[in-house]
Amino acid sequence: MAGERDGPTAAIVVDPDGLVSGWSEGGRLLLGWTAEETVGRPVTDLLAGPPPPGFPESDGTAPDHAGPIPLRHRNGSTVDAVVTRQPLSGGDGRPLGHVVTVQRWGRRPVIADRAFEQCPFALGVYDPELRFLWINASSGRVIAHSEEQVLGKKYREVLPEFDRSLFPERDDKPYTDKLAEVARTGVPARLITVFQPRGSDYANAWATSIWPVRDPEGRVRAVANWGFDMSAEYWARQRLLMLNEAGGGIGRTLDVIGTARELATTPVPGFVDLVTVDLFDEVLRGEEPPLPPALTPGETIELSRAAQHSARDDTDRAPGHPLPVSHAPGSVAARCMATGRSTVQLAAEPGPGGEWAFGPGLAADPAHWPPGNPLIDESIAAEGLTCRITVPVRARGALLGVVAFSRSERPEAFTADDLILAEELTAKAAIAIDNARRYSRERATALTLQRSLLPQRLTSPEALEVASRYLPGGTGTEVGGDWFDVIPLSGARVALVVGDVVGHGLHASASMGRLRTAVRTLADVDLPPDELLTHLDDLVIHLSSDLQPASRFQPTGEFGATCLYTVYDPVSRRFALASAGHPLPLIISPDGTRTPVSVQPGPPLGIGGLPFEATELDLPEGSLLALYTDGLVGNRERDVDHGIAELLRVLSHSDTSLESLSDTVMDTMLPEDRTDDAALLLARTHALDPRHVADWDVEPDPSQVPRARKFALDQLDNWGLEEASFVTELVVSELVTNAIRYGEPPIRLRLIRDTSLICEVSDASSTAPHLRRARAYDEGGRGLLLVAQLTQGWGTRHTTEGKTIWCAQTLGQPEPR
User: Fold this and answer.
1) Please, how many CA atoms are within 13 Å of residue 259, restricted to the half-sphere of its CB?
2) Reported pTM
3) Which of its termini does the chain have fewer beta carbons within 10 Å around, N or C?
4) What average pLDDT does this structure show over 683-700?
């Protein structure tokens, strides 16, 4: 059989002169010429065109293995043939010519044709116009046509469905166009073709190759293809791709409803046509879900539809508007949630032989199904569905809800592999939903803690008009440690503070509360800004050491912060400030120009060992101060310098109220997808009326005490504050006496009328007085105790020149300025 041919072989005897001297019957069958017509004629007369190079040779014969060579058939057609020769010799060794054998080019042994015919791969050959020249039996089964039915017909006539792409969203070329492209360009192609065989409701995936068939001159004479069914491998790969997409696409938002929407949209339309995600209300609120023992198959379960996505309408439920849904007792969803097991519902019965009509190559064997699946439920057809998978949403032992994957547009039923895919998708989403729920709870707790630690209502001192804003980061970020404060100080002064704690979450909020309390405590001591930051730096270092783990298995917290501390004096209009790694304030003069701040921020708190630099500025009345955190001016799309320039541009509209200006700043500066919290504190300065301040130099002589009392009483008469005369006379007498007795000159008495009446006595000594308990026969020790009991507050303020003892009395409504 190996030598069997499927076509005749011509044997021609050519004499040394190149004339035909013998002709076989095979020559007649192959070329149509008889022996009488060819014997005695030159062998070159058989050629259909010009002799190829070397034909005939000098001896007048054809060369060995010359082919394919076009030969002339008796009917005028051309036969491509392979020509070979063997020398012919007589008994005495004298050359008698050659024996030339001629075979049709391209013909194979019959066993080779049978191998191609019986190949399990689909094979086909087409001319450049895509007319069928040959197909094997496997290809005929795929296209549901025999070779006799398609020979000579164009590919598009036989298979019009291949003129469109099954996946237009991928911008794939139709298979017919790919065949034509190979025929036109001569460039081979390999691709995976997904199509629906005739008579089947299921799409198959085929690995195919297309290549050009060329003649000896390199011209494309035909195009061939082959393919094999790789549906099982293809759909398994699609499932892995979908799981990979789900891994990167589900759980990006740290938002429960956003994660539910990601679960609903990921499998549509590649896997199913409709997905619904129903969750407990407690999950949506960030609370703990109900315990599974509270759920029984016999009771109605109330959920909320957190997400829904359909391929038919290409719509999804808007986030933030979950709709209530009820799952009746005994329903598939109720049973799934009560038992914790998934259920597959099919609307169709098995085929006549009991087999399921699943797609080829897929896991349709009932042995692959878990117990109780699949469930034949013709009722889902009334919903327009062909099949549905219901999966409980469980994470860390808690039941969060239920998700349903449904098919309606495609006829193929789910397989056991599809159930595994649905459960994997749900498991990935369940962890993400539970993470989002836990994050929402922690974020709400941290935000509540932080807001409780921030000033609930800013004081409104006469020295400043203030407004503030704080916004936490977006829902995908934890609460940070930004904070601010407005602290009234002695002498009608006001401290403005803003800071930022490193990190996010509960730890940052608690650390922020510690720092704010510490700053208020240090501010009560009336320290200058640079000294206050030095003490605050020491405190942060001590707090950081407290966070060091007792063992290597105990987690540590990160504690560092920046802080800007400023003090404004409405009497002198002096503005003092110092920074610990925090952005400096922006100061806008009443004429709209920026007042530069010539000081370098010091190191962040917690570094230790480095000094902080303080500076003072004279501010005109009506200056605008802007204190802020870096979350306001810096983000992923804008660096800090550009952010500060933009903030200055917005602050130039300072003629508006501070409340309106604060809203404008936050709306303009912060993007919707902000990743950090931001704090803003705006203040407009006022100057205290000089008529509300009176001071007098006191000689260091006890005889000056009565004169100091008289000076104070006369000033109260001028201000119309006679009701405060008694207390003021006693306070002035005590403070001036102490300054003369224990202090050093120069001594100065100052009265300030603000929302309270402030009495200050300054001297050059740095020794601070303190309260002590006087015994029954002591002649002194009761003065400061008397001052503390008669006034609403008193204290000591150290300066570079010495100290100032002050006390304040509450007054009624101040006169309008």
Assistant:
1) 30
2) 0.56
3) N
4) 89
